Amino acid sequence: MSGSCRRCVRKFGGMTILHKEARVRRDRVAAPDYDENDPIFEVDHLSLDYPGGRGHPAVEILNDVSFRVERGHALTLVGPSGSGKSSVLRCLNRLVEPTSGTVRFSGHDTRSFDPRELRRRVALVMQTPVMFEGTVRDNLCIRPLGVPGDFSEKRLATTLDEVGLESKLLDREAATLSGGEKQRVTIARALLRDPQALLLDEPTSALDPPNALLVVETISRLRAARTLSIVAVTHQPDLVRRLGGGLLYLMKGRVEAFQSLDGSDAGAALDARLQAFLAGEKMAGRSGRT
Amino acid sequence: MSSTASIIDLSVWQLAMALVLVAAIIVVSVRQSLGLERDLAIGTVRAIVQLYAVGLILAAVFAAARWYWILLILGVMTGVATQAAVSRLGKPLPGAAWIAAIALTVSTAATLAYVIGVVVQVRPWYEPQYIIPIAGMILGNSMTSAALAGDRLQSDLRARSDEIEARLALGFSGREAVQPMVRASLRAAMIPTVNGMMTVGLVQLPGMMTGQILAGSSPLVAIRYQMVVVFMQGAATALGSLLFVRLAAGRYLTPAHQLRRYML
């Protein structure tokens, strides 16, 4: 085991205690215990390294990234392939463990939540929609044993409608859906958990243009209707404009530029790279997962 | 009732005659340009040397019949099996040797204790004539199935990492998220054993039964032993692969229910 790995284990050891406490209090934690004025996400000096293989140095993924997202607002992460955009999202719902720095969700360090509880509040929609075996209904209702929630027929139908799908799809084998339908089912699956924030990891990049457009419309509609807090990674200028909020440009794991797209700053001079991006120019390469 | 007098002892001359069979493989290899001559030669020499050495050691242990010698031999056998199981993993996994050692030791010890102590009722338990061949068969099965399960687990975790993260993102625990891959690897490891039970004795006589019959046992005695062997191999397979896969899957997860993608 490499030195850096040993360090993780010790660190995780400490977190196990937190996580056990959180498990005991799981039902009580479920009630919203935040101050409306707290930003939904507050990220401070976030760094992430992956341990290198035997004899290889650690690989730096993120370096000193800081930003905040106000409740009900949106933030879009842009940047070339390998710049760490997906990794930022994965730090927000703690799918990966930052090497240093803090991520606060609703005013609390994400490490003070049971990670499973955190992930139910901060839903993630991935680049390639993952459909589990079974029907659309099975895919919408999938949840760990004992987790409460409203999964009634009525609710399923309403939620499908919210993402622009008909309720007759409920009994279709999920594997037979088109790419765009699958992605909208994963969005519905996320919404059914009543998340406070939605993380979108290039939700349209695996789709053809008509399907991508449908997904963009779905997301913008949801944003307006639900006042969801959204953090998105996307290469679709259209989606960025419709989400509004902030635009963060990442490069090699560092924040290169930030731009607010609404409020009084909106008219201010845009960073040239962001301007080019919004004008529809291609970023240097399509992003892979980082 | 068996008469050991019927066993034909093989002379060195007779063994040399058996080497003619190796010549047949070499002829095939040369004529078909398989390029296996060198490996065949090495393999033949190794087979002779290894088996001879094992024969000498076993003869000494059988003569001494001390429990500590038996434990030492079992330890060495487990060590070699551990090494072999780990070397078959597609990608190195930190701590794999320990995981394999624990899985093989526990599965073999449990199965062996039951077979020796309860089923066959060997007294004393360390009677080398029984414990060494039986332990060898159990260990061999545990090793093969653990390696098979481990390799399948690694490739499944890699290929289905998005699915695992999708489950984690929906609030499943790490253990719940990898359960489908754990199940698939266990199935893959156990199917050969279960299929083997279907055809046992019909296609070819199992090694142990063949040996007993050659040694002069009645086939009716031999089949009883063979049944015990089939069941114990099944148990060793299940136990060995289950332990290995569970422990190995745990290495890819953190206590905070995260998948260590960089290890895949």
Protein model, in words:
- The complex is a heterodimer of chains A (290) and B (264).
- Chain A has ten helices and ten strands.
- The longest helix of chain A is centred in the N-terminal third of the chain and has 22 residues, at 3-24.
- In chain A, α6 packs across α7 (179-191), α7 runs parallel beside α8 and α8 (209-226) packs parallel to α9.
- Chain A is of the alpha/beta class and 290 residues long.
- Chain B has helices at residues 12-31, 37-64, 67-87, 96-119, 128-159, 161-169, 174-199, 207-214, 219-251.
- Chain A binds chain B through residues 1-2, 5, 8, 12-13, 15-16, 19, 50-51, 54, 59, 93-97, 111, 115-117, 119-120, 123-124, 126, 128, 130, 132, 142-144, 147, 186, 189, 193, and chain B through 92, 94-95, 162-163, 165-166, 168-173, 176, 254-259, 261-262.
The total of helices of chain B stands at 9
Distance between the termini of chain B: 58 Å
Shape of chain B: globular
Oligomer description: heterodimer
Average of the residue pLDDT scores of chain B = 90
**Secondary-structure element series of chain B:** HHHHHHHHH
Q: Could you tell me the strand content of chain A as a percent range?
A: 15-25%
The amount of beta strand of chain B, in percent, is under 5%
